[in-house]
Amino acid sequence: MAMQHQVKHDVIKEVIITMSNTQEFKPVRKAVFPVAGLGTRFLPVTKVLPKEMLPINDRPLIQHVIDEAKQAGIEEFIFVTGRNKEMLEEHFDYQPELMQTLKDRNKQEELEKVRETNMPEGRFFLTRQAKPLGLGHAVWCARRLVGNEPFAVLLPDELIQNDVGCLAQMIEVYNKTGGNIVAVEEVEKEETQNYGIIDTPDNGGVMKVNGMVEKPKPENAPSNFSIIGRYILQPEVFDELASFETGAGGEIQLTDNMAKLIDRQPFHATTFKGLRHDAGRRGGFIKANVMYGLQDPKIGGTLRKEILKLAEELRNEEQLKGAA
């Protein structure tokens, strides 16, 4: 009887383990894109042109991020906008005159590119952030459109160049862990004061998050894993954001409010495959244009030759300076 009891116990245990390993979590169908910023680093061009519409190779910044979200299976797209952002809405709208003109001129490739920008009806939503009170406040502005389900947040300034997008990689992790997930990458210790930094006992891959702090001084940083602009969050974060507590820079920080969920919900960070570009800085923006251009089958070869030619000219210039 004792042996039969043990066998029964082992079978039940195995079933429980199998069920836990195959648990299905509520799918991530919605994504929030905070696009209300003024783009002051790029003035004067951003005086009338939204920063998110600045071109990276043949498409605006925002479309690269939207394409990443589509690849990850996102179904509803929520823009948190501000004043003078109408061009964003127009870019993703249906433009029959343009499409008909391209069709009449048999420009099939260009027609397909335009089709790719069209948002499905009833899947594209906009809400306004009236005052620039921080990323946490921008996310809070989307609460009614998100509702009571998990959602992604993608910052258009951050581009991840890879065949499989960063968000798709995160969704794969989420399907195993559930809860909240942030994408992270390692930075130099002295750079931690520029980012949200996680506290983790792990050293890469999928990591347990014990805490996080916004822009810590290098000597106080709990690790050198910085949070980049990709998040999967549970709707309970809106309850925390509703307190409107300010943090670093006097703004409502998303990092501070995510940290309040750590003791109540699963919280993980994950590294990712791909090259990250901080296109919110002028230098990073130019680098992103070069790297995306090199991957373009139409111009990549020519661009590579021009870069090598320029590098040779710079070497000769340095040699002349040294000889002088």
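(the above was protein one; protein two follows)
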Amino acid sequence: MKFLTKSLFIATCIGISLNSYALKGDTDQPINITSGSQSLDMESNTVVFSDNVLITQGSIKINATKVTIIRKEGQREKIEANGAPAKFQQTMDDGKPANGQANQINYDLGDEFLILTGNAELKQLDSSIKANKITYDVKKQQLKAMSGSKSRVKTVLIPTQLQDKKNKK
């Protein structure tokens, strides 16, 4: 039972705790953005990238139809990625890949709060969480997965893939 509880907890954090478990050097790497078009509104501090957007930073990779970055005075950026679906991937410190996707991905860098909406999925190896909406508070490391009245949250756990390397001998 203890192992199942630990596995469930680990599974709910699949690929989400990017700041805690992501490759340590990722956020120090240059950010590269390619897109079909880009627009900048200096007055509203908004940049919009559209038409097959690809963002890379270290092991982080984001693919989306459209990415909007907004910076309000005195605050950190808010990022919104849209797609059918928008996708992200990153390599964790343990070398395992983490992937996520949703029709819309919102990340508030100041509050460190992530929201995946519409066909949301988080995956690490073969373990996954699927729901209509997944939220993750990075600071508190709290995840919530919600689905509408006609669907249910689906979680798949592969215990052998979730075990720490320390437990494997």
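Reviewer note on protein two: The chain has one domain: 2-164.
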